[in-house]
Amino acid sequence: LSSAEESVKSLGEPLGLQTSGADQLQSSEPSESSQPSTPLPLPMSNLGPSALSIQEMVAMSPELDTYAITKKVKEVLTDNNLGQRLFGETILGLTQGSVSDLLARPKPWHKLSLKGREPFVRMQLWLSDPRNVEKLMDMKRMEKKAYMKRRHSSMSDTQPVESVLQGTDFVQASSPQHHPQQQLKKPRVVLAPEEKEALKRAYQQKPYPSPKTIEELATQLNLKTSTVINWFHNYRSRIRRELFIEEIQAAGAATAEGVSPTVRPSKASEGDSCDGTEPDTTADENKPSEEAGSAGKEPTPSHSPTPRDPTTSAAEGPGTSGQSGASSLALFGFSETAPAASSSSSRNPKDSNLRKKKAANLNNIIHRLEKAASKEDPSEWEF
DNA sequence: TAACAGTCAATATT
DNA sequence: AATATTGACTGTTA
Q1: Which residues, by CB, come closer than 7 Å to strand C?
Q2: Chain segment A354-367, per-residue pLDDT in tens
Q3: What is residue A171's three-state secondary structure?
Q4: How far from chain centre, in Å, is Cα A148?
Q5: Which nucleotide is nearest to A227 (CA to C1')?
């Protein structure tokens, strides 16, 4: 613990972040509430005057079951009609989107950084507060009241009253202060499904594309280089995260019971249309869907188990870039392991999805292996 | 310096 | 209206 505390010290005060204050309604009163449902190991020795900062608590916190915590939080919130926005802003200091993401795909405790654990500690703290719901509902009422008031007082007075949070108004004024008119906000880039497909395919070949490859992709897809780079960063990290959840899900299911094919209908991932290069003969469920031509500016990327044509732009052919000597082996077409087509039950799209992700992860590992191989000192091999 | 981890916040979906 | 998704941004890390 002492070592843990020291590591906290370094993080001490630099809370300079633009993090909106206004929260911290944390009442760390020692009201020992022996919640039967949750282990609740947090409220450790509460020394009188010591109002441990959350960071200190995070550092000292024992392992928490992030999955259980999010599950419980979701339950409490829905049971009481409390939204993620309110909960996030008042309890966690996070935005609605972040809360949604966090609740839906919590990373396992051991994979979280100190910073990443904070929201979970706060949630645990909140869950252990006997008055949590009551307090939130009060906040809700107050907000509504304030809202009504505003709306009333401003009949013709048009003043949306921006939120108190930082007004990050990105005004990409190409020409300084000329047009006081509508601010040209940086338009949000929205990748077309075909572009995502191409990027995913490229990822399958090379999770860590060289700057040269990235440049090629950007050109071929007509995207900014930074967009491609960002996409890869985001994709890698999100793929990783999904593996985590499937990991715990599998673990949980395994413990749950023995053989009954009771598939957890958990409303998890929906089939992502992507498809790996798989000449695989496995009779994949072909959803005959596919609407007729719609505003497609390009013939829908061929789905169907047909050995996809390499014509479609993007994604360099395997042979192409032979540049970086070492790599090039990271290619997993991953054909079925099990000989006969999948047997019993579960012919879930999620199944092939999982395979895909695992394959992606393997490629990832290979990348790191290759990287490690270039280091003489085996001690640096983080495996 | 590239890759990450956390988030934000604009959009998409429900 | 509430919740989910996701490109981009900020601060770390090695």
Answers
A1: A 14, 17, 77-78, 83-85, 96-98, 100-101, 103-104, 113, 186, 188-191, 196, 224, 226-227, 230-231, 233-235, 270
A2: 555 566 656 665 56
A3: strand
A4: 35
A5: C7
